[in-house]
């Protein structure tokens, strides 16, 4: 059985796979907001789950970034930058990805800042 630290590292590695693709596509105007938002949401989700795992905190299979932040808050652990706004990307996990809503106007500069800040925070949690 993997330790909490091993699971946290594994989740951060998975976040980094998505981050690599996100970085390549985020500035490409030919890539739709739905795809960029989906990748951003996935990076954030895995970063949050990595931090939860590192602290030995249970989390359910969810795409709800707010719920994951609440898990850290409820346990008295540090929350990431932009914690109060991360759930704005929740719809990109499912609704936008499957065409249930057609997103427009994703603030890519803001999303890039959020993704980079949360990724750096997640790495700090593993130290």
Largest sheet: none
Segments where pLDDT lies below 50 for 5+ residues?
none
Proportion of residues in β-strands = under 5%
Structural class: mainly alpha
* SSE run: HHHH
Annotated CATH topology: Four Helix Bundle (Hemerythrin (Met), subunit A)
- The CATH architecture designation is Up-down Bundle
Which descriptor suits the 3D outline? globular
Average predicted local confidence, pLDDT: 92
CATH superfamily: Nucleotidyltransferases  domain 2
Just give the CATH class: Mainly Alpha
User: Percent range for helical residues?
Assistant: 55-70%
Describe the structure.
This protein is an all-alpha fold. The protein has a single domain (4-125), classed as Nucleotidyltransferases  domain 2 (Four Helix Bundle (Hemerythrin (Met), subunit A)). Helices cover 57% and strands 0% of the residues. It has helices at residues 4-25, 33-54, 65-74, 108-125. Helix 2 (33-54) packs parallel to helix 4 (108-125). The longest helix has 22 residues, at 4-25. The two termini are 21 Å apart. The model has no long low-confidence stretch (mean pLDDT 92).
Which labels suit this protein?
globular, mainly alpha, Four Helix Bundle (Hemerythrin (Met), subunit A), 127 residues
Short description:
The chain contains four helices and no strands. The protein has helices at 4-25, 33-54, 65-74, 108-125.
